[in-house]
Structure prediction request, 339 residues.
Amino acid sequence: MLFDGSPLVPSAVYLNTDGRVLVGRDAERHARMDPSRFEPNPKRRIDDGQVLLGGAELAVAGIFGQVLGHVGAEARRQLGGPPTDLRLTHPARWGERRRSVLVEAARLAGLPAPRLIPEPVGAASYFTAMLGTAVPVGRSLAVYDLGGGTFDATVVRRTRAGFETLSEEGLVDVGGLDFDHAIVEFLGRSYQSSHAGQWARLVAPADPGDRRQRRLLYEDVRGAKEMLSRTTSADIHLPALEVDAHLTREELERLVRGPLERTVGCLRQAIASARLTPPDLVGIFLVGGSSRMPLAAHLLHSELGVAPTTLEQPETAHSPAEAARTRYTRPPPPPPSPA
Ligand SMILES: Nc1ncnc2c1ncn2[C@@H]1O[C@H](COP(=O)(O)OP(=O)(O)OP(=O)(O)O)[C@@H](O)[C@H]1O
Ligand SMILES: [Mg+2]
Prediction:
């Protein structure tokens, strides 16, 4: 399924003034009107019980339910009927209480009771189905998941029934949002003396106008960061200062090298906890949007001696349902050509 032409729908929500909850790109667009009605990362609020949006308290399960309801409605519209099977993936370390929020959200959205799958287990089946990698029972692989909010390293082993988790490690302070903050701080070092007043309001907004500017800044910073995975330099417009700043990949890599080295150390630890060494693994699979940063794969390769395996769309790489579909729709191999 595509949502406005994309296989991903952001889980952002916006409580509209008419009481409706907008989801995904519509929510992101409305965030400009009143950022206090906007929650960009509901997953980060999983432990909060309630979330305050524009002065109203909404239950976290209700917010998740709105996101799932949006996906369910699109499924009905595009596929002609209600979903009959629901699989939801969750961070490997989520316990019973957090998982129960997902179950409640599915119920509120009028969807079937979900089958809950830990993300690295989903990733393992996705990668092996996509790549046609045969993983013999008893062999293991590692999943390196660098997303927006956190980093997770997991080692899973093939069993007769699927995959089981052998070890997991994580860093809660390394993710794409942290890289965005690092870039803003870096820009501040250049502009906070020459544009003191404007810069101070940008990073500590005093009114809705300032908050809008701050959102624009972070959107532009994120865009530039993502572009630097493909190019060697990018421009960032600084609203209010009316300045176009310049950032090179080298500068970005100096900012993120330390945190990325910690992710590699964390994965090394997970492999050791599983009583394995890197050459024992079938592969190291990269998951999560921030794993597109070329320095991540480079450090993994140089420090662990294993070239990691990547996919075009590392955000969807923990969905096992997608893998199942891929397995059925993959075209048959071409007949062998005469030599
Ligand atoms: N080309 C790219 N280069 C660098 N970062 C990227 C690129 N594409 C996406 N990202 C970053 O990936 C992050 C989103 O990744 P993803 O969707 O996997 O996160 P998430 O699953 O929502 O977060 P988490 O798993 O931490 O809760 C964002 O910070 C985004 O800026
Ligand atoms: Mg993720």
About this structure: The longest strand covers residues 163-171. DSSP finds ten helices and 13 strands in the chain.
